[in-house]
Amino acid sequence: MAAHNGMKHVAPMEVSVEAGNAGEAAWLDDDGRARRTGTMWTASAHIITAVIGSGVLSLAWAIAQLGWVAGPAAMLLFAFVTYYTATLLAECYRTGDPSTGKRNYTYMDAVRANLGGPKVAFCGIIQYANLVGVAIGYTIASSISMKAIRRAGCFHQNGHGDPCKSSSNPYMLLFGAVQILFSQIPDFDQIWWLSIVAAVMSFTYSSIGLSLGIAQTISNGGFKGSLTGISIGADVTSTQKVWHSLQAFGDIAFAYSFSNILIEIQDTIKAPPPSEAKVMKKATSLSVATTTIFYMLCGCMGYASFGDAAPDNLLTGFGFYEPFWLLDVANVAIVVHLVGAYQVFCQPIFAFVERRANAAWPGSAFITRELRVGPFALSVFRLTWRSAFVCLTTVVAMLLPFFGNVVGLLGAVSFWPLTVYFPVEMYIRQRGVPRGSTRWICLQTLSVTCLVVSIAAAAGSIADVIDALKVYRPFSG
Length: 477
What we know:
Blueprint: H1 2-18, H2 22-25, H3 40-51, H4 59-90, E1 94-95, E2 102-103, H5 107-114, H6 118-158, H7 169-182, H8 192-220, H9 238-255, H10 262-266, H11 276-306, H12 324-360, H13 365-368, E3 371-373, E4 376-378, H14 380-399, H15 404-431, H16 438-469
Antiparallel strand pairs: 1-2, 3-4
């Protein structure tokens, strides 16, 4: 039936184009929305922007907790699971026929179409809470990098003995101000250029981290680290070793989290043929392979150069002091990347709230009246609500400057439901996989295993946050 409906939409459009009334129709898709222009390359850029975030910088620390055997193995496993479940999720973009079925514009639309009921509410709470958490995390990460630029200059001038202390609060306010400006750009299609700039930046700082790691390893005269990771001793108790190892899983999960915006990215790909799912699978394999190679190199070289002393942020933990200008370039690249990544992650929240507001008050000029200035579409409601959202995430970031510890918690909490559970359940429903069949048992086993890993990683991260709260003062920056 879905295929039949899809054809009904397409046919008149094709007739009108042939009749010469192409003006309007040429700019519309089969559902009457603006024609999509995305390709495998732009989708890959969006994914790489979303995936290679600040998560890459904590991977050396994560591998240090797990060691040379379990560290790289965990990264490969997370990469495989993320890729596999992303291919299942790509199949759920259209309900029914893969080329002409009804399109699901967001992750929640896909859950609503395939599963319905209370699962939609559960998905919404997890997805949006995770996106808000990421926005707060990125605000903190960017301020740490801006602070590191100042500290690098201070160390260079005054020597490494100077504590070079400064507050990160002014940097968070600056980042928030920039986000208020960019958040006025209405939607994903208009920020493709921001995604490409951000993807280039992520490669820049990851490459610098990698190069410095290689240089340090060469100057050390060999690889540091051990097969089992940080050894239990004066600095690390056996309990801490367990908690930190579990938190390391959360950090790796966070570094791979992009499933929650995958459908939104897929919705930018131009109409079939080939079907969006085919293009998305290619984009996913390209971007997951690229990021995994990068992650393995950055994480492993960081561990090889520092061993047990690997900092929790490779470029701001001052494992490296010189060349200070190169560290500055890397940290500027991190900030520029996070400006773009923040937008990529927040657009689904913006769109959700604005759709609900439009549906609730369709006649309100406060919501509907727009003034277009270049790429910006200014409406009083959009200006008010998006600015308020950015202000809220900035204030929370200033309250919790040790959010680095919460990165593992964010990764752990969102990994199982968004990356594994919903894609598996939707795929089973859409493809009619019979309960009790070999395929069904394999998919459910994957889901349960990932749930156990998520719970363990969350426990490790919570233990770490409780430790940090014992010595914490609000707004201490």
